[in-house]
Amino acid sequence: MVDQLIRDLVPIFAAGLAIQQLLEILDPIVVRAIGEKDKRLVLGLVSMAIGLLIAFGTGMRVLRPMGLDGYDIMDAVLTAMIISAGTEGFNSILKFLGYAKEGKKSDAAALKAWVAKDPDAEYLMDRIDRKPK
User: Fold this and answer.
1) Cα(5)–Cα(22) distance, rounded to whole angstroms?
2) In a 10 Å sphere around its CB, with 0-12 CB exposed, 13-18 middle and 19+ buried, how is residue 51 labelled?
3) Residues of the chain with pLDDT under 70
4) Annotated domain spans of the chain
5) Which of 58, 89, 107, 124 could cross-link to 82 by cystine, CB 3.0-4.6 Å?
6) At what angle do helices 2-34 and 87-117 cross, to 10 degrees?
7) How many CB atoms lie under 10 A from the CB of residue 19?
8) Alpha-carbon distance 14 to 86, whole Å?
9) 55-93 in b/e burial notation, b at 16+ Cβ within 10 A?
């Protein structure tokens, strides 16, 4: 499930990376045109505008692959914000997914330890694992 979710979110990562690279190119141009003082504001507005165009234009969404349907406009705006953050936004999502995956591993280890204490439960789990598909 987590692997499929990551595959669904890869286009959002790619878009964020592209925006990050574009901002690297635009940085010296913006500094030359308006100076260092307002550079961050201008680049932030440019990245958000491009993120909105990408999210609304392509249908990319971050909430939908996570099973949250019915929030299309909010999902698109959130997607645009994550895209506009470049790789930093996507890294935050991956970090969260990593925590979720580690939590499931921990739960599975606790269940395995509990089952090992009960011979009947261990027998049933063994039967389930060997069940023909």
Assistant:
1) 26
2) buried
3) 1-3, 5, 88-94, 96-118, 120-133
4) 2-101
5) 89
6) 160
7) 23
8) 9
9) beeeebbbbbbeeeeeeeeebbbbbbbbbbbbeebbeeb
CA neighbours within 13 Å on the CB side: how many for 3? 0
For residues 62 and 77, give the distance between their C-alpha atoms in angstroms, rounded to a whole number.
10
Crossing angle of helices 2-34 and 39-58, in 10° steps, is 140
60 phi-psi bin (left φ>0, alpha ψ -120 to 50, beta other): beta
- CA 93, 110, 67, 73 dihedral sign is negative
Helix (H, G, I), strand (E, B) or coil at 36: coil
Main-chain phi, psi angles of 66, to 5 degrees: -90, 5
Residue type, 50: I
